[in-house]
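Recall the central idea of this unit: under ordinary conditions, the amino acid sequence of a chain determines the structure it adopts. In this exercise we apply that idea directly, starting from the sequence alone.
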Amino acid sequence: MNLLLTGKRAGLVAVLFAAFFLPKPACGSTDPAPIRVVDGILTRDGVPYRAVGVNYFDGFQRLLHAGPGKRDDRSYRAGLRFLQSKDIPFVRFAACGFYPSEWELYQKEPETYFALLDGFVAEAEECGIGLIPSLFWAYFAIPDLVGEPISAWGDQASETRAFMRQYTKDLVARYRRSPAIWAWEFGNEFLTEADLPGEVNPKKWVVPSRRTALRRTQADVPRSEAILDAYREFAQIVRELDPQRPILTGDAAPRVSAWNLARGNGWKIDTKQEWQTALEASNPDRIDTLSVHFYHPRSCGKGYPGYGVKGFSLEENLQTAMASAKATGKPLWLGEFGPGIGETSQQERVRQLQEFLALIEKHQIPLSAYWVYDSINPDLGVWNAVPGGENDFVFDMIAETNERMALGFLSR
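Accordingly, the structure predicted from this sequence is:
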C-alpha cells in the first residue's frame, strides 16, 4: 500500500482499520450484526460509518456455472485474502446463479449448494471481510426457471414469488448469525427493466442452453409496481428473520425518464423533482437504504448514459441522490461505480476513479462498491481489477480513501 506511513502513525492506522473496517470475530461476539441503520445513519459499533468496498460479483457464482464435477474452484480464497491485505473491508457478491441452469444445484441438491456457499462465507469470516449477498441477481432467472413470464414477480400467487420466499428464508436463516454478513440485497438493477415502452426484443436474454425462456413477449416487461411488491415482501421476510442488518434493493440509479415511464408517458424526460420521487419510491418501506449505481459519464456515448437527472454532472447527480437519502432517512448505497463504458485508456481510468473517490469522500456517501473485482468474465475487462493487472491501481486508491474517512471521523 502506497501510504508512506511509519512509526506511531502506521500503528494508529492499523488500529483505525481494525476498529472501523474489519468485521468482529465470531468468538465472544454478543451482537452478530456489524452494520446497522440508526435514525437514518449507517453505523458500526454505535458510531457513524463510511466505507468503500468492491463488487466480487462471481466470487461464489463461478462455482455454479462450472457444472457438476468441476465445482472445486476455490480461487475466492486467494481473492478474499488479497482484499484483506489491502484493507478493503467488504464485498458485494451474487449469492445465487445467474442463468436458470445455475440454480439447478439449489433445486436438486440444496445441501451441496449450501456447502459451497458455506465455504465462501467461512473464508470471508476468516479474512475479516464483510459480505453483502445479492440473492436474485438476474431479473429473468427465477421466472424462467419456474416457467413463468417475468411479470410474475408482481403476482403473489406465482411460482416465482413462492421460490423467492423459500430461497430468502433458506439463505437468511442460515447466515443471519455470521459476523461476515453486513446486509441483505434483493438483486441487481431490476427496475432498470421495468415500464419500458415499445415492442419487446424476443431474443433478450434468451439462451436455451442455460434454461432460459425460448422467446420474450410483452409479459416479460414487468411494471415497476410488480417489482416493488416483490421488494416489499422480500424485506418483510428478511426483517422477520433478521431485525438488524440493512436491506438493499440493488437497483441502479433511476433512468432519466423513470417517473414518466411508470406513468405511461414514454421517454419524456423527468424533472429533478420527478427523478427524486422515482428514486425514493424505488426503495419502499422496510428497505432502509437508497440504492443507486453510477458510472462515469465520459465514454458512455451520447452524454450521460440514460440514468440520473438529465443534464446533471456526475457530482450533481450524486448530490441529488444524497439529498433524497437525507430527506427519507435512508443512507445512500452506491452499489456500483466505475469508469465509463469502453474507456480503454489506463490514465483516464485512473483519473475517473480519483474523481469518483473524491466525490464519495466529499459528499460523505456512506457505503459504496467499485465494479468489479477479480471477475472471470472477459467482457468486464475495462472495469476488472485483478491483482497485478492493468487496473491494479484500484486497490491502493480505495484503501487510501478508507483511511482518510476513518481519520476524518476521529478528528471530529
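The chain has twelve helices and eleven strands.
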